[in-house]
Structure formats: C-alpha cells, structure tokens
Amino acid sequence: MIALDVRTLVFTATLVIGVMSFGMYVLWRKRDDRCLRYWTLGGACLTAGFLLIALRGLVPTFVSVVAANSAVVFGAGCSLAGMNAFLGRRPQWPLIGAVTAAAAGALAHFTYASDNTDARIVLMSALPAGFMLLAAHRLIRDPAAGDLGRARTFTVAAWVAYSVYSLLRIIVTLSSSPVTDFMAAGTTQAVVMLAAMLLVIAQTFGFYALVDQRHLRELARAKAHSDQANTAKSEFLANMSHELRTPLNSIIGFSELMAGGTFGPLPAKYREYAHDILLSGNHVLALINDVLDLAKVDAGRLELREHEFDVAESIRRTLIMTSGLARTNAVTVKADIDPDLPPLLADQLRIEQALVNLVSNAIKFTPGGKVVVAAAVTDGALALSVADSGIGMTETEIRTALTRFGQVGYVHLTKKLDGTGLGLPVTAALVELHNGVLDIRSRPGAGTTVTIRLPKVRLRPTLPRAAQAGE
After folding, report:
1. Domains of the chain: total
2. CA distances, 142 to each of 139, 160, 216 (Å)
3. Which residue from 153, 155, 184, 344 has the highest number of Cβ atoms inside 10 Å of its Cβ?
4. Sorting pLDDT into bands at 50, 70 and 90, what band is 470?
5. How many CB atoms lie within 10 A of CB 453?
6. Residue 185 domain flag
C-alpha cells in the first residue's frame, strides 16, 4: 500500500490551484469580466490558504490555522460572488464577509480556547460546501443560464460532488477517533485532501467552460444580429437600384444635351455648369453602381450570365473604354496577349468591369508612366494581369485598398486621388464569384501588378490553327 503524505498533497494542491488561478487571471485581463475577477480573487485566496496550511508547524499557529482556513472560506465565497456576477446579480459581499468573519472567530475558538481539530474539520467542510450549494442553486434556477448546456451541468455536478464529499467527510470525522494532528493524520486524511483538490480543479474547469460557453453564445447572437442587419442593408440597396438610377440617368442625359448644345448654344458659363453637372452625375452613378454590385454580392443576388467569349476582344474593348483617362494622365497603355488564348466561359460584362477597374486604377496611379495589360495561360489557369510603373504600395496599403471605401493617401501626390474606394473590393468580389483569385504584388516606387487567375475549368478547348485554316 502506498503511503500518502498530507503536507505533500497540500503543496501539490497549492501549485495546481495557483496555476489555474493564474490562467483565470489571464482570461480576466483579456475579457475584463466581473465574474472572472471574482473567481481570480477566489483562486488567489485558495492558493494562499493552502500554502499557509502546508506550512503548518513552520509558521505561527494563527497564520497556518485561523488565517489560512479563513482565506479558504473567503475563496469559496468568491465562487458564489463570481456566479452572481456571471448571472448579472449582486455579488453578496456582506454575506460572504459575515460568514468569513464568523468562521475566523470559530476557528480561533477551536484553536486556542479548545484545541479541537475535529470541530475545525467539520467547520471547514460545511462552510465552503454551503457557498457552493448556494452558487449551484443560483445557476440552476436562473432562466438566463438555460442555454449554457453541458458547461452548466458540469459545474453544478462539481459543486454537488464537493458538497457530498464534505458531508461524507463530516460523517467520517464525527464517527472516527479524534484527530490530534492534521498533518500527521495519515493516509485517510491524505485521500480526503486529494479528493478536495480534484473537486476544486473540476470547479475551476467548470468556470472556464461557463465563460467560454457564454462567450460563444454572445458571439453567435452578435453574428446573427450582424447578418440580419447586413442582409437588410443589402436587400434595401439592391431593391433601390431602379429608384436611384432612374432620376440620376435623367440628370446625366439632360446635362449632356445642354453641354453639347443639342437644342441651341448656351452661354459659356452655363455650358461650364452643365459640364460640371455631367461629370458629377457620372461620378455618383459609378459610386451607386459599385455599391449596388457589392450589395447584390452580399445578398447573394448577383447572378453571373455566363457564355463563351474571346478574352482578347474584351481586353481591346477595355483599352478603348479607358483611352480617354490614359490621354488625360499621359499614360501609355499596351496589351500583351497570347495569340493562342482559348475562349473563356464567364460573365463577359463582369470580367470587362473588373478589367476596367484595374486598368483605370493603374492609369490614375501612374501619371506619365506605362501600363501593360497581359493575358496568358499559365499552369493551366488563365492569368489576366495589369502591370504599371507607378508609385506602388506597401503591404499595409494593399490591405487598405482591398477594404470597402478604403482609399490610400500617397505622400508622392498633392492630394488623395479621386475615387470611391470600391474599385478593388468590387473587382475582388467579381473574381471570387468566378471561382478565381485576385493577386496583388507591389512595392513603393516600383509599380504594381494585379493578376486575375481564373481556373482551368473555365477555359474552353480550341482547334489548332492548322485545323481551323483547313476548314
């Protein structure tokens, strides 16, 4: 039979409870929750109490008996305070303080007035168990704790087990011969201490489980609320497409007629005003289109109208659409297209929209420079790249540019360039809808290369040129 030493087990319990209390402290500092603060305080009191008990015979009796056991009682009371805080109730410090003070007085009496170890054991078994039963009752009866599942069941079971253990300990103590020296009580008291240590550890794991379960529940609720709000926003914007675009198209159309003098010349000042209205209207329309596209993506309402088309032709159309912007910024735009590109199965309008966004961005950030639009099949996938010799971006600026309404300010330029901050997010969303990947490589002062990679399954086989010529 293995002989168990009480002092060694108490030291072990001190170490284990101390480590778990430190973990509770770290969690409290991370989440700043009142219940974690009280449970951390309780763990610290239990650690201090067990340490002083282990030092019995090496420190004054008052410290190792009265102060140590009072700290253990107060630590058990902190379990109740933490549970009350967890459930949104008052911690009941007056009750905990009164019980701790009464325990200190009783311990002093049974130590100095009558040296009664059995009475102290009964007292130290009943009081912590009472706190734990009260905490278990709170947890069981509170309606808000109903969805904590196994975490609640485990914690309540640990507290009930500790109470049963305490009752058995009281029965064994009262039915056995009196204990004169707790530290030299032998294997029986050692087993009792081992059981107490395991139950305290189980209680601490229950605390962790409760906090984690509540955190997951709050996250789920927040996510559901966020998803609901985001869906409502996206559906509203998607449904408002016609109402927003119709009057704006009228404004753009009439201002264009007025600026062009279709129904007769206007004074120079009025013509300038009409031109400004036209530019502003087109800018707002572009912003509305981008916002609506993202809203449709979020709401799952952006449907791709796929068909086979010639990628080279789409690139040529893109260069035509951006030629005016290129002239304004004195940018040279060239195409480098593989002559053997296969047809692409995709939404041509959306692919061209993504290309226009990328080429427009490249031109705006490459004043007086060069932009190359390339297309080739690499590693079985179609790679559409837009490379510029512009000012480039850092990794942080790339992440900013990919966020919605994220605009990058450059020290190289006198002001932040015009734009909605939605071009790249819209492009990334369109590429993702095609099961593709958007890759951005850039360095400050060395330009930027943005590549759209579309999977092999979207490429359609073509006959060799010799076979086509024979036809």
Report:
1. 3
2. 6, 17, 19
3. 155
4. very low
5. 18
6. yes
d(CA 427, CA 378): 21
- Indicate whether 235 belongs to any domain: no
CA 259 to chain centre: 51
- Return d(Cα 297, Cα 87) in angstroms, integer: 40
Q: How many CA atoms lie within 13 A of 461 on its CB side?
A: 2
User: Residue 103 pLDDT > 90, yes or no?
Assistant: yes
pLDDT of residue 187: 58
| pLDDT category of residue 97 using cuts at 50, 70 and 90 | very high
Name the β-bridge partners of 371.
333, 388
What average pLDDT does the segment 140-155 reach? 82
pTM more than 0.85: no
Final residue of a structural domain among 228, 253, 276: 228
Quote the tokens at residue 178: 């009196």
Confidence of residue 178 (pLDDT cuts 50, 70, 90): confident
What digits encode the pLDDT tens for the residues 332-349?
999 999 988 999 999 998
151 touches 209 (CB < 8 A) = yes
Determine contact, residues 22/39, Cβ cutoff 8 Å.
no
Which domain CATH number covers 396? 3.30.565.10
Between 418 and 202, whose confidence is greater?
A: 202
The residue range of the domain holding 32 is 6-228
d(CA 130, CA 324) in angstroms, rounded, equals 82
Does residue 463 lie in a domain region? no
Residues 210 and 117 in one domain: yes
Boundary residue ending a domain (207, 228, 249) = 228
- pLDDT given at position 93: 93
Residues 213, 323 within the same domain: no
From the list 371, 290, 394, 376, the residue with the least C-alpha distance to 325 is 371
